[in-house]
């Protein structure tokens, strides 16, 4: 149990993921802790793992006890393959949905490929995909490198259940100064709940609230989190001079090094009427995670140390990845 004044994180279940062939593992470096996304089905657990420097993404299938079943699909151009970055996993209407850039792949609960669709008016990076009244709402960012700067466009698009495009209806003018100054990875993460999208600026904590039905941003919440170190602008000119803008591997390494200089928001989920935000800090003893409980008006209610990276929620429970082999299923209780 991990706790501080305010609320406690109580471990309900610890799932040891076992049986993965060694050939699926690349070297784990200090920038990666376990898994990236998780989706629970009736009989299976699907998790993704991203290695940005090696430009590889894996999606694994396990049974409910954590025994390895299969490597689901792989990267490539074929209909059943996904792109370099796999950004979101969702289980809906007995099917598993994999969102990868401008492509969505649909699998049965047992991992059988059904179909894939190319999405138009969709960002390079799909940060959040939510199904609202049988329509998919997809949020993300696009970028183009023009005249020495990354120009970004943020948008929310809507698709029907067959992924026919309905309307690219919202392009919020969010802060893009971090991208324009050299950060290649996405600056925002998001979640949905109670008819709203909550979009969070990772380096400088603020939440943009989008009303899905009204199709517009309704408010911006500035967060006050004790101990959170705000990000400073990246030195894009220095990276360019060192040739890191043209060398993808060196550039991503430089970006990862830069993210160690401030607190970095890794994820946010909505459950039981509250927002739970996870961020990481680099300290002398290594990487430390924190969990912050926030109300929907942006007020920080409490904060505690987290057992690992928050990668999702399931039936009002929070899912943490503590290593490449372990998932913790936890509940949150307020301290008296």
CATH class: Mainly Beta
How much of the residues is beta strand, in percent? over 45%
CATH topology: Neuraminidase
The average pLDDT score comes to 77
The CATH homology group name: TolB, C-terminal domain
Query: What is the H/E order?
Result: EEEEEEEEEEEEEEHEEEEHHEEEEEEE
Largest sheet: 5 strands, antiparallel
Radius of gyration, Cα only, in angstroms?
19 Å
Low-confidence sequence ranges: 26-33, 175-185
Architecture (CATH level 2) name: 6 Propeller
What does this structure look like?
By secondary structure, this protein is mostly beta strands. 7% of the residues lie in helices and 53% in strands. The protein has helices spanning 177-180, 236-241, 248-259; strands at 2-4, 7-16, 37-40, 44-51, 56-63, 68-71, 88-92, 95-100, 103-108, 113-118, 125-132, 135-146, 149-159, 165-170, 188-193, 196-201, 206-211, 216-222, 264-271, 274-283, 286-294, 300-305, 309-314, 317-323, 326-334. The strands form 6 sheets. The chain has a 5-stranded antiparallel beta sheet, with no helix packed on it. A hairpin with a 5-residue loop joins β21 and β22. The longest helix is centred in the last third of the chain and has 12 residues, at 248-259. 36% of the residues are buried. Residues 26-33 and 175-185 have low confidence and may be disordered.
SSE topology sketch:
Blueprint: E1 2-4, E2 7-16, E3 37-40, E4 44-51, E5 56-63, E6 68-71, E7 88-92, E8 95-100, E9 103-108, E10 113-118, E11 125-132, E12 135-146, E13 149-159, E14 165-170, H1 177-180, E15 188-193, E16 196-201, E17 206-211, E18 216-222, H2 236-241, H3 248-259, E19 264-271, E20 274-283, E21 286-294, E22 300-305, E23 309-314, E24 317-323, E25 326-334
Antiparallel strand pairs: 1-2, 2-25, 3-4, 4-5, 5-6, 7-8, 8-9, 9-10, 11-12, 12-13, 13-14, 15-16, 16-17, 17-18, 19-20, 20-21, 21-22, 23-24, 24-25
């Amino acid at each position: 149990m991990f706790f501080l004044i305010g609320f406690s994180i109580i471990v309900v279940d610890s799932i040891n993921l076992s049986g993965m062939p060694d050939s699926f593992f690349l070297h784990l470096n200090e920038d990666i802790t376990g898994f990236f996304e998780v989706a629970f089905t009736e009989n299976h657990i699907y998790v993704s793992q991203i290695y940005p420097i090696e430009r590889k993404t894996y999606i694994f299938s396990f049974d409910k006890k954590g025994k390895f079943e299969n490597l689901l699909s792989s990267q490539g151009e074929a209909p059943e393959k996904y792109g370099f970055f796999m950004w979101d996993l969702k289980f809906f209407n007995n099917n598993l949905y994999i969102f990868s850039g401008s492509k969505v792949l649909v699998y049965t609960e047992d991992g059988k490929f059904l179909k894939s669709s190319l999405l138009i008016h969709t960002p390079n990076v799909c940060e959040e995909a939510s199904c609202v009244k049988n329509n998919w709402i997809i949020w993300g960012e696009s970028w183009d490198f023009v005249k020495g700067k990354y120009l970004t466009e943020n948008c929310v698009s809507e698709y029907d259940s067959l992924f026919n495009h309905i309307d690219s209806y919202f392009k919020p003018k969010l802060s893009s100064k971090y991208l324009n100054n050299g950060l290649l990875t996405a600056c925002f993460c998001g979640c949905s709940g109670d008819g709203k999208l909550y979009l969070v600026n990772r380096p400088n904590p603020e939440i943009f609230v989008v009303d899905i039905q009204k199709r517009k941003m309704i408010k911006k919440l500035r967060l006050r989190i004790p101990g959170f170190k705000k990000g400073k602008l990246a030195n894009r000119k220095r990276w360019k001079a060192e040739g890191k803008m043209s060398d993808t591997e060196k550039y991503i390494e430089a970006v990862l090094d830069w993210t160690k200089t401030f607190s970095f928001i890794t994820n946010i989920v909505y459950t039981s009427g509250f927002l739970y935000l996870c961020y990481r800090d680099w300290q002398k003893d290594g990487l430390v995670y924190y969990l912050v409980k926030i109300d929907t008006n942006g007020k920080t209610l409490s904060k505690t140390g987290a057992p690992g990276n928050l990668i999702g929620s399931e039936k009002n429970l929070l899912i943490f990845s503590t290593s490449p082999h372990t998932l913790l299923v936890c509940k949150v209780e307020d301290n008296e």
